[in-house]
Design goal:
By secondary structure, this protein is of the alpha/beta class. The protein is 37% helix and 16% strand. It is built from 11 helices and 12 strands. The longest helix is centred in the middle third of the chain and has 18 residues. It starts with 29 loop residues before the first helix and ends with a helix. Bound molecules: ligand PBG. Ligand PBG binds next to loops. It is an enzyme of class 4 (lyase).
Length: 345
């Protein structure tokens, strides 16, 4: 093997002096890099989103989200146990009712024996305060039309989501979740005024200590695709009349301000990776803790690329979570919560 030869160029680089600042000094070893790292990930601030499904007797893998399951109560408790062991701070429960249990108003959403409340109750019973039980407070899994609110006909004969008629249903749902044992309710429906109504209802029923994580800046977009399969969504069309337009940044700040004014204890930006600019602005602006939701589409993209051998799965998971944290998230919702916590251990 012959020695590689450098091209014959002047070593003084045309008279330019040697670099006077050398940032590479702080990258010379892993110990040095750890010493100067600005960003740390802590599993205590991870949230594992989970699905509990009615009418199944074994966990069912979601085809567009390999490694994520619709759970039975038994398998849910097992997944939660693994999460707790790994140090994950919270679990966010979504309910998947049978088609017969969906209706116009989503009444199973606030039924004490509805699938979501059953899951919440089982988790709280099993883990007490060792795991923060968060519940999704939204009707879309429970309505037969798949929208996040009830429908009405407007003055021109169009079917539209009725913001104000939906609010009391969210209040009922939040109270039922608090009763079931939720530490945190998480309204994700993007109806105007939802936080104020939910806070008032929780307080009126004696649940002053149940906190609210508001999905404040939630964008309508393509990244929720796999989630629709995960919850057996019946939605036709889209959610563009209530979720935010991906072209807009300013309204994210207004939504956050409104939610804080209405009583949100924590706010969220969703999705995460495609919206790091929004996350960064919200983190600068917010006076309450900020969460970011690494959504189904983000999970599926990385999983698919890794399955093809195009990306290193574990490294890419860590890169993505680190970026979300660096952009300003305190709390991260991720389907990799348990696995990432194990990697950090
Ligand atoms: C709606 C809701 C959605 C998600 C969380 N809550 C779907 C939507 O808004 O269409 C998406 C989560 C994900 O994609 O991982 N209640």
């Amino acid at each position: 093997m012959s020695e590689p030869t450098l091209p014959n160029l002047p070593t003084d680089t045309y008279g330019v002096p040697a670099p006077s600042r050398r940032p590479r000094r702080l990258r010379t070893s892993a110990t040095m890099r750890n010493f100067v790292a600005e960003t740390q990930l802590d599993p205590a601030q991870f949230v594992l989103p989970v699905f509990i499904a009615e009418g199944i007797d074994a966990p069912r893998e979601i085809s567009a989200m390999p490694g994520v399951y619709q759970h039975t109560e038994t398998s849910l408790l097992k997944a939660a146990e693994e999460a707790v062991k790994a140090g994950v701070g919270s679990i966010d429960v979504f309910g998947v009712p049978t088609p017969e249990h969906k209706d116009f108003a989503g009444t199973q959403a606030w039924a004490a024996d509805g699938i979501l409340n059953k899951g919440v109750a089982a988790l709280r019973r099993e883990f007490g305060d060792d795991l923060l039980v968060m519940s999704d407070t939204c009707l879309d899994e429970f309505t037969d039309h798949g929208h996040c609110g009830v429908l009405t006909t407007d003055h021109y004969g169009n079917t539209v989501v009725d913001n104000d008629a939906t609010l009391p249903l969210y209040a009922a749902m939040a109270v039922s979740q608090a009763r079931a044992g939720a530490h945190i309710v998480s309204p994700s429906g993007m109806m105007d005024g939802q936080i104020r109504v939910i806070r008032a209802a929780l307080d009126a029923e004696g649940f002053q200590d149940v906190s609210i994580l508001a999905y404040s800046a939630k964008y309508a977009g393509a990244f929720y695709g796999p989630f629709r399969e995960a919850v057996g969504s019946t939605l036709q069309g889209d959610r563009k009349t209530y979720q935010q337009d991906p072209r807009n940044a300013r309204e994210a700040i207004m939504e956050v301000q409104l939610d804080i004014d209405e009583g949100a204890d924590m706010v969220m930006v969703k999705p995460a990776l495609p919206y790091l600019d929004i996350l960064s602005q919200v983190a600068d602006y917010s006076t309450v803790p900020v969460a970011a939701y690494q959504v189904s589409g983000e999970y599926s993209m990385i999983t698919a690329a890794a399955q093809n051998g195009w990306l290193d799965r574990e490294k890419t998971i860590m890169d993505s979570l680190t970026s979300i944290r660096r952009a300003g998230a305190d709390i991260i919702l991720t389907y990799w919560a348990t696995e990432a916590a194990q990697m950090l251990a």
